[in-house]
Design a protein that fits this description.
16 helices, Rossmann fold, alpha+beta, binds adenosine monophosphate, 20% strand, BirA Bifunctional Protein, domain 2, five-stranded mixed β-sheet, 432 residues
Length: 432
C-alpha cells in the first residue's frame, strides 16, 4: 500500500467542513479590514528564502525541501528551487516584481500550504497551512506607522473571536532596528563567552553565528543561563522605543490584552521592531497558533529599489483548527432532502426533480438516490445514515399526480406536496 508521505496528511470530510468554515470566516474578516487576496507560487528560487528568511535560521539551514531543476532549457538547468517554507518572502518578492509601491499601501492576505522538514508530531507537519496577512508599502503612505502594527494585532483578535477561539495570549516584544540588534548581539556574545561551554550544541553554534537565536533555545538546562543574559529593551534606540510605546498605547486604548516577552525573537531573521506570537493553552507543546512582526528592511534586502516597510503574521491553520471548540459535525451541512426513486424508470423522474430543486434554491442540499435500491427501506437507511432532513418519494403514482410524498425523518410526519411547492416546503423548515 502506498501511504501519504511522513509529515503530510489527508484532510477528509467531515473535518474539511471545519477548514472551510475557518477560511470563509477569515475571508469575511479580511474583507472588513480592506485586505485583498494574493496568491504566489508554492515554489520559488532557493535564493529568495536564503536571503529573505536568513541562512542561519533553522528553516533555511535544516528544514527546506530543495531540489535542483532538471529542465533542459539553459535557463532552467541546475536552478535551485525550494518549496516555500513561509510566505512573507514570496509576497515581498511579488511586491517588488510588480512594482506595487505605485499602489500605495498594500494590504494582502493569502491562504495556502507551506513546507518544512521538521520532526512531525501533533500540530507539527511537513506540509501545513498558513493564513498570512501583510501590510506593505512605501513609508510615505504610512507603512511604518505604529497604527499599522496595532491594526494587525487587533485584526488577529477579531479573527480569533470570530472563528471561536477563546483563551489566547498575545506575547509582544520589540526586537529593535538593525543597529540596535548589532549592539545587542555584541552584548549577547560578550555575555555568552564565559558560559556558552555549559550550553547545548545548538547554542554553542548560535553564540558565534547569530547570538540572538540563543534566546529561542528550549533546552531546560540552558534556561537559567539565558535568564541572566542582557535584554533587548536596554538596546532600543529612541525611535524604536517610541514606536513600541505607541503600539502599546493603541492596544491599551482599544482594550487588547498582551504580555511582554523580552525573549520573543522569532525564528526568522527579517523581523524588526514589533514581534509577536499568539499562543493557546489547549495546544500542548506546539502552542503557538500564529506569529508575526515588522520587517522594515526585508524588501531592500530582496532588491527593492526603494524602502518598503511592512508588518504581517502567519497563522498556523492546522493548529487553529485543532484548537477550535466547534466540531466538524456541527458545521457540516447535512442534506435537506434525499430523493428516493421507487420503481423502474423513476431515475429519470428523480433526476428531473433534483435538478428543479437545486436550481430553484441554491442553498438547498439535495441528495439523489438510485432506483436500483428497489426496496424503499434501503433508501430510508441511506437517507438516515447521511442525516437527511426529509426523504422525498418518487414513484409512478406520484409522478402521475405531480405531487410527492415528503417525509420528515426525525418526526415521521408525512405530507403530499404538489411539485411546484416542494422547494419552498423543504427550505421552510430549514430556514434555507
Ligand atoms: P512561523 O512562520 O514559523 O512564524 O510560524 C507561524 C505559525 O505557523 C506558527 O505559529 C504555527 O502555528 C504554524 N507552523 C509553523 N510551522 C509549522 C509546522 N511544521 N506544522 C504546523 N504548523 C506550523
Amino acid at each position: 500500500m502506498i501511504k501519504a508521505v511522513r509529515g503530510t496528511r489527508d484532510l477528509l470530510p467531515p473535518d474539511t467542513a471545519l477548514w472551510n468554515f475557518v477560511e470563509a470566516t477569515v475571508r469575511d474578516v479580511f474583507r472588513a479590514y480592506n485586505f485583498h487576496e494574493i496568491r504566489t507560487p508554492i515554489f520559488e528560487s532557493t535564493e529568495l528564502f536564503a536571503r529573505g528568511v536568513g541562512e542561519e535560521t533553522d528553516i533555511v539551514a535544516k528544514e527546506m525541501f530543495t531540489w535542483e531543476d532538471r529542465g533542459r532549457a539553459e535557463s532552467d538547468k541546475g536552478q535551485s528551487l525550494t518549496l516555500r517554507p513561509e510566505n512573507t518572502a514570496g509576497i515581498v518578492r511579488a511586491y517588488i516584481e510588480h512594482k506595487m509601491w505605485d499602489r500605495g499601501l498594500n494590504k494582502f492576505f493569502s491562504i495556502g500550504p507551506m513546507f518544512r522538514r521538521e520532526r512531525p508530531q501533533k500540530g507539527r507537519y511537513r506540509q501545513f497551512f498558513q493564513i498570512d496577512a501583510e501590510i506593505i508599502g512605501p513609508p510615505s503612505v504610512g507603512s511604518e506607522s505604529p497604527a499599522r502594527d496595532a491594526e494587525i494585532l487587533e485584526l488577529v483578535t477579531t479573527l480569533l473571536d470570530r472563528v471561536g477561539i477563546a483563551g489566547w495570549t498575545l506575547e509582544l516584544n520589540s526586537v529593535g532596528c538593525p543597529a540596535d540588534r548589532v549592539k545587542f548581539n555584541e552584548a549577547l556574545r560578550a555575555a555568552l563567552h564565559p558560559v556558552v561551554g555549559k550550553m547545548c550544541a545548538d547554542c554553542q553554534r548560535r553564540a558565534i553565528t547569530n547570538p540572538l537565536r540563543v534566546l529561542d533555545c528550549k533546552v531546560p538546562e540552558d534556561q537559567p543561563i539565558i535568564e541572566t543574559l542582557p535584554r533587548i529593551s536596554q538596546f532600543l534606540d529612541e525611535a524604536c522605543r517610541t514606536h513600541f510605546e505607541q503600539v502599546k498605547e493603541i492596544l491599551n486604548a482599544v482594550g487588547i490584552p498582551y504580555t511582554l516577552n523580552e525573549r520573543l525573537v522569532r525564528g526568522l531573521d527579517y523581523y524588526t521592531r514589533t514581534a509577536f506570537e499568539f499562543t493557546h493553552g489547549a495546544l500542548g507543546a506546539q502552542n503557538a497558533i500564529l506569529g508575526g512582526g515588522r520587517y522594515d528592511g526585508l524588501a531592500e534586502a530582496l532588491g527593492s529599489p526603494q524602502p518598503a516597510p511592512g508588518i504581517g503574521f502567519a497563522i498556523g491553520e492546522d493548529r487553529l483548527v485543532l484548537s477550535l471548540a466547534a466540531t466538524a459535525e456541527s458545521v457540516q451541512r447535512k442534506p435537506d432532502v434525499y430523493i428516493a426513486p421507487l420503481g423502474a424508470g423513476m431515475d429519470r423522474e428523480a433526476a428531473k426533480l433534483a435538478r428543479e430543486l437545486r436550481r430553484s434554491n441554491k442553498d438547498l442540499v439535495v441528495e439523489l438516490g438510485d432506483e436500483s435500491f428497489r426496496k424503499l427501506k434501503k433508501s430510508f437507511e441511506a437517507a438516515d445514515k447521511m442525516g437527511a432532513r426529509y426523504i422525498l418519494i418518487v414513484g409512478e403514482n406520484e409522478v402521475k399526480a405531480d405531487a410527492f410524498a415528503l417525509k420528515h425523518l426525525a418526526t415521521g410526519q408525512q405530507v403530499t406536496v404538489p411539485r411546484a411547492e416542494l422547494a419552498k416546503r423543504i427550505a421552510h423548515a430549514n430556514g434555507a
